[in-house]
Amino acid sequence: MVKTAKAIAVTVQEMVTKSTTNPDELGILANQLTNDYGQLAQEAKPAALTAENEEIGSHIKRRVQELGHGCAALVTKAGALQCSPSDAYTKKELIESARKVSEKVSHVLAALQAGNRGTQACITAASAVSGIIADLDTTIMFATAGTLNRENSETFADHR
């Protein structure tokens, strides 16, 4: 989902560039933006359902919806600019819409990050536990081989 959100940001930036260099290509980019947003919306459903709590899930949904409204406005501005490529006011509106979409992408990413805190904590804890288990396995291996035996007659097997 993060990858798709970043793809949207890249497409938006390309739209800003093409608005001044080649407005004819805005239709292709608007189509790409629409496809990317559709994919993001599909990916957001399971992300919202598996979020840490219901509040974070609804926050993710709300941010994705806001991004959708921003994308729709940007596509509309791109269409208007294609109709009149020399209109400076329409270019300015497209650039402003693009800025808002970029801002909304960052809000979506922030909402996803908030939803991942619990997951990241579990991953970190699992990694720490795996490290401890590996250390214990190594210690058991050395103890079984007799390298950790005391100088008296007791062995690891006696204490096991």
UniProtKB/TrEMBL annotation:
Principal cellular location given in the protein's record: cytoplasm
InterPro entries: Alpha-catenin/vinculin-like_sf (IPR036723), Vinculin-bd_dom (IPR015009)
One Pfam family named in its UniProt record: VBS
Residue intervals of the Vinculin-binding site-containing domain: 1-117
GO biological process: actin cytoskeleton organization; cell-cell adhesion
Protein's cellular compartments: Cytoplasm
Example GO molecular function: actin filament binding
Keywords linked to the UniProt accession: Cytoplasm
Entry's Gene Ontology cellular component terms: cytoplasm; focal adhesion; plasma membrane
Superkingdom of origin: Eukaryota
Designated name of the protein: TLN1 protein
Organism expressing this protein natively: Bucorvus abyssinicus
